[in-house]
Amino acid sequence: MPMRSLSHAPRSGHVSAAYSVLRAGHLQAAPGAALTRGRHVGQDILYCRSGYGEVEISGRVFGVGPGQVAWLANEMPHAHRADSAKPWEVLWLRLDGPGTGAMRLAIFGENEHVRDAGDTVRLEAWFQRLFATLARREPTLDLELNQLVASLFVLLAGSGRGPTAEMPRLVARVMQAMREDLTAPWPAEALEDIAGVSATHLRRLFAQHLNTSPHRWLMHERLLKAQNLLADTDLTVGEIGVACGFSDVFHFSREFKRHLGASPANWRRAERAF
């Protein structure tokens, strides 16, 4: 039976520009209690304090146990069920705002919906702040909830499989090597030599700890350096492309526009106008 449930209706237009919490609660589920829905507004996040349950997203089932967090993709058909023998006790919220699906992918990874909560003391304290904020209903509630949701993202990103101090040294070693020489082609064999593991295992570690691949991480670093050079130097676009490891100006321009939505020259003009 529900032990606590609080609701909020954000001001018109708020969730198009900022995050909010539509509902939140504390539930001790009955054995086997289940909910099945098609698409629904917002995104539901469940933190399992004790007991067991499972979530289902578009036909894929994920088990959830104590100290784990599940993020339901409400834009897809979904369900959740309490275990029939040891039903879960959960703290939960339904959030909404810009790009919540993309935020889920950034924190949990592609096709993943359950992860370890990490620091459960901090997470429980966060829920208590959320409940107290919703109960007070101050005039600044929408702004307070936006701040709280952002802090939740930071908390979740630092737990489980996100970038943490427990990142394997070999991953950090590969990152450092690529960052120090962005002009190198960095084929899989070169990364294997540095890491001391197979390319397949290295890709798995990057996905586990950084939610990306070595190739995509390298592309991000190259484009970040390119932005700095475009903004702060008078090097030509071609010279910057070479300095950042791109084979030619056409390759550089294509990747830059694909990731940043503008050509290097147009991006530079816009930044310098500012």
Describe the structure.
The structure is a single chain. 45% of the residues lie in helices and 21% in strands. With 274 residues, the chain is of the alpha+beta class. It folds into two domains: 2-157, Jelly Rolls, CATH 2.60.120.10; 169-273, Orthogonal Bundle (Arc Repressor Mutant, subunit A), CATH 1.10.10.60. The strands form two sheets. A six-stranded antiparallel sheet has the order 1-2-9-4-7-10. Strands 3-8-5-6 form a four-stranded antiparallel sheet, with no helix packed on it. β5 (53-57) and β6 (60-64) form a beta hairpin. α2 runs antiparallel to α3 (141-157) and α8 crosses α9. The longest helix is centred in the C-terminal third of the chain and has 19 residues, at 214-232. Residues 160-165 have low confidence and may be disordered.
Can you give keywords for this protein?
sequence-specific DNA binding; Arc Repressor Mutant, subunit A; dioxygenase; Jelly Rolls; four-stranded antiparallel beta sheet; single chain; 274 residues
Q: Major sheet: order of its strands?
A: 1-2-9-4-7-10
**Secondary-structure element order, as H and E?**
EEEEEEEEEHEHHHHHHHHH
Q: Strand content of the residues, in percent?
A: 15-25%
End-to-end Cα distance, whole Å, is 56 Å
Number of strands: 10
Overall average pLDDT: 89
Please name the CATH topology of the largest domain: Jelly Rolls
Main β-sheet, in a few words? 6 strands, antiparallel
CATH superfamily of the largest domain: Jelly Rolls
Instruction: Please name the CATH architecture of the largest domain.
Output: Sandwich
| CATH class category name of the largest domain | Mainly Beta
Q: How helix-rich are the residues, as a percent range?
A: 40-55%
